[in-house]
Design brief:
InterPro entries: CB (IPR044068), DNA_brk_join_enz (IPR011010), Integrase-like_cat_sf (IPR013762), Integrase_catalytic (IPR002104), Integrase_recombinase_N (IPR010998), Tyrosine_recombinase_XerCD (IPR050090). This protein is mainly α. 53% of the residues lie in helices and 3% in strands. It folds into 3 domains: 111 residues, DNA polymerase, domain 1 (Orthogonal Bundle), CATH 1.10.150; 144 residues, Intergrase catalytic core (hpI Integrase, Chain A), CATH 1.10.443; 33 residues. Strand 1 and strand 2 form a beta hairpin.
Length: 332
């Protein structure tokens, strides 16, 4: 109730509730009182998470934890448990939090930060190869105009899924080919204005004309065309199903609604955009999030390698063509 009153997103509340329910169920199965549980009991819960088979079974796309849950999912499951014990401490029912968080310890490396319960894996985003991207485009060409313009915008403006599906008709500025991403739809509540290409603008004009046949009312830009929800705002889950279907038809199962954002930001890094420009375009408050795309593009490493090889190449040529006997001296 406190988190709801503070205005946290409903999906965040739902995710925390499910995570806490899982932990309480584990305590019940192990005859453990969650109020008095200690760090050893938390360790048992972590072990259960790391060995739990994935609910998708054979349909799971990728696994990075060595078991059935991704490392990020395991980290997410521990957050509501930690918050639960924070609440119990505030209520005076406990003196300490068995989950805890990084505490400063003098003498430790990296600023004295204590290691978390589960090592946090930092992986670069996955992006498709050129051949895989062409496969996606080949399938997308046969899609209705709504799906095509959504894919184009998702890439052009590096939009997250919620940002894309939450666009409204008054967020568009066709004259300047820009769109406004409202703060309440973003991950970090940071509003921004981003451009889109002329090609996407042509698709957008076609979709606006098509949308008028579904509804002339202002409001959500992308509407459902199904019999059950005809004219209703397109949901996140419907868009995820559309992208999943395209990915499977193209033979690229790892392609998701977030892949277009990763691909766009990586392409901007490859084109030589400055770090802060990419961060502004992406809506990142912290450039640490943006750095992963610089790393993924290999731009800095490639530039350094090219400069270094150019210097070494020039030095070798100079040595080979030297007429003062230096080459012979070196060979001896």
């Amino acid at each position: 109730m406190i988190w709801t009153d503070l205005g946290r997103a409903p999906r965040t509340i739902d995710a925390y509730a499910r995570g806490l329910a899982e932990y309480l169920l584990t305590c019940e199965q192990g005859n453990v009182d969650p109020v008095t549980a200690n760090r050893a009991h938390i360790a048992i819960y972590v072990r259960e998470l790391t060995s739990r088979p994935h609910h998708r079974g054979a349909n799971v796309v990728s696994i990075d934890s060595g078991a059935g849950l991704a490392n990020s999912t395991i980290q997410q499951r521990l957050v509501p448990v930690r918050l639960f014990y924070d609440f119990l401490m505030e209520e005076g029912l406990r003196d300490s939090n068995p989950v805890g968080r990084g505490r400063y310890t003098p003498g430790r490396q990296r600023g004295g930060q204590q290691r978390g319960l589960v090592p946090r894996l930092t992986k670069l985003p996955w992006i498709p190869s050129e051949q895989q991207w062409l496969g996606i485009l080949q399938v997308a060409r046969e899609e209705p105009v709504r799906n095509r313009v959504m894919l184009a915008l998702a890439y052009d403006a590096a939009l997250r899924r919620e940002e894309l599906c939450s666009l409204r008709t008054d967020d568009l500025d066709p004259a300047h080919r820009t769109l406004r991403v409202r703060a309440e739809t973003t991950k970090n509540r940071l509003e921004r204005v981003v451009p889109y290409s002329a090609s996407t603008g042509v698709l957008m004009s076609a979709y606006i004309a098509h949308r008028a046949m579904i509804s002339r009312a202002r409001g959500p830009l992308f509407l459902s065309e199904s019999r059950r929800n005809h004219g209703q705002p397109l949901t996140l889950w419907t868009w995820s199903k559309v992208v999943r279907r395209i990915a499977l038809e193209a033979g690229v199962p790892r392609f998701s609604t977030h892949t277009t954002r990763h691909l766009c930001l990586t392409d901007l890094a490859r084109m030589g955009w400055e770090l802060h420009a990419i961060a502004t375009f992406a809506g990142h408050r912290n450039t640490d999030s943006t750095l992963q795309y610089i790393h993924l593009s290999g731009r800095d490493l490639a530039d350094k390698l090219a400069r270094g090889m150019e210097h070494i190449h020039a030095w070798r040529i100079q040595m080979l063509t030297s007429a003062d006997g230096t080459t012979a001296e070196v060979s001896r």
